[in-house]
Structure formats: structure tokens, C-alpha cells
């Protein structure tokens, strides 16, 4: 059975720029809504560490449903 090359390194991700933009946008909108990371994570039903990793830009390819849940929680916050 052939083994694939594995996951790309973060530095090699073609989504690095988009991840940085998502991190900045999410952080800014959370602050605009007056929410802490803990509050937003609870509203979106995602783990606090996941939110922290996305906001810090450490996650280059977050799950689609995680992003949708975060945006929905932000929209309902104000």
C-alpha cells in the first residue's frame, strides 16, 4: 500500500494569507461585539483552544462548519 506525502507544513500552506486575514477579521469582529474568546467559543459551541488557534493564525485550514458556527454566533451577538 502506497503512503502519501502527508500534510504540508504550515509554512508551505497555500492558505497562509487567508488564514491571517481570517484571524484578523474574527478577532476584530469579536471585539466589536464585546465578547471574550471564552464567550464566543461557548456561543458557537467550539472549544476555546480552537478559537484561540484560529484567531492567532495557527490554523491555516479551519473546518468550514467551525467558521460558520463562529460567524453565526457573532451575528447573533449584535
Model description:
The chain has helices at 16-32, 37-44, 48-55, 64-77. With 78 residues, it is an all-alpha fold. It has a single domain (14-77), classed as Orthogonal Bundle (434 Repressor (Amino-terminal Domain)), CATH 1.10.260.40. It is globular. The mean pLDDT is 88.
> Any idea what the shape is?
globular
CATH architecture tag? Orthogonal Bundle
What is the rounded Rg? 14 Å
CATH topology: 434 Repressor (Amino-terminal Domain)
What profile does the largest beta sheet have? none
Structural class by sheet pairing and helices: mainly alpha
The CATH superfamily label reads: lambda repressor-like DNA-binding domains
Low-pLDDT regions: none
Report the order of strands and helices.
Answer: HHHH
Residues in helix, % = 55-70%
The proportion of strand residues reads under 5%
End-to-end separation: 52 Å
Regarding CATH, which class? Mainly Alpha
Number of helices: 4
Total tally of structural domains: 1
* Total beta strands: 0
Estimate the mean pLDDT confidence.
Answer: 88
Amino acid at each position: 500500500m502506497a503512503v502519501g506525502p502527508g500534510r504540508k507544513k504550515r509554512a508551505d500552506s497555500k492558505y497562509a494569507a487567508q488564514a491571517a486575514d481570517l484571524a484578523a477579521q474574527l478577532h476584530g469582529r469579536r471585539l466589536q461585539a464585546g465578547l471574550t474568546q471564552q464567550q464566543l467559543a461557548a456561543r458557537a459551541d467550539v472549544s476555546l483552544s480552537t478559537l484561540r488557534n484560529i484567531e492567532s493564525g495557527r490554523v491555516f485550514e479551519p473546518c468550514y462548519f467551525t467558521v460558520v458556527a463562529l460567524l453565526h454566533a457573532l451575528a447573533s451577538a449584535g
